[in-house]
Amino acid sequence: MKRFNWIDVVILLVLVAAVAVVGIKLMSKPTEGVKEDASLSTPNLRVEVLCQELLPEEAENIILSLQSAPREVNGAQVEMTRIFNSNNLVDACITTWVIEESPTEGFVNLRLTVEANAVLSKGNYSIGTQEIRIGKGYTAKTMGMETEGTIVAVTELSK
């Protein structure tokens, strides 16, 4: 007669759990991806972001991405200038972009203007999940591009 072995039971349970997880993944609906609200409201904040020392072709490709045709998301046409944060379209967009000379040879700077209906909470504005303050790093991200910069100016807009 064979003795009961707990190690065999644990291994069997792990295998059953793994098969169940794989089965659930295969049988579940694919995720919708981007959560969105296609409408933009009147902006209350203008933010200037300076992205320093980019390769010239990187800056040019960022601008081409911003100028590209709208993309369909969940049945709505979304401009490629729309800010994208934490898998959500945010009530903000990039309104202007300018390539500037960089003091570092072989690189350029890219100045972006973001206009947003920012949320004011605990004395600080935020756009999506990013707090907005002069000198703070900012990730400018749309559905077609993403680049790091520093906030160099913040202007409150009247509604």
- Classify the helix fraction into a percent range: 10-25%
- So what's the overall shape? elongated
How far apart the termini lie comes to 83 Å
Question: Over the alpha carbons, how many angstroms does the gyration radius reach?
Answer: 23 Å
Total DSSP helices: 2
- Major sheet: order of its strands? 4-5-6-1-11-10
Q: Helix- and strand-based class?
A: alpha+beta
| Extended strand count | 11
- The overall average pLDDT, rounded, is 88
Strand count, sense and closure of the main sheet? 6 strands, antiparallel
List the domain count as a whole number. 1
State the low-pLDDT regions, or none: none
Classify the beta-strand content into a percent band.
35-45%
Helix/strand order, N-terminal first: HEHEEEEEEEEEE
Task: Describe the protein's architecture and organization.
The protein is of the alpha+beta class and 159 residues long. The chain has one domain (45-156). The protein has helices at residues 6-27, 56-67, and strands spanning 45-54, 71-73, 76-78, 82-85, 88-101, 108-116, 119-121, 124-127, 130-132, 137-141, 146-156. The chain has a six-stranded antiparallel beta sheet with strand order 4-5-6-1-11-10. A three-stranded antiparallel beta sheet has the order 7-8-9, with no helix packed on it. Strands 2-3 form a two-stranded antiparallel ribbon. The N and C termini lie far apart (83 Å). The mean pLDDT is 88.
Write a concise keyword list for the protein shown above.
159 residues; 2 helices; three-stranded antiparallel beta sheet; single chain; 21% helix; alpha+beta; six-stranded antiparallel beta sheet; 11 strands
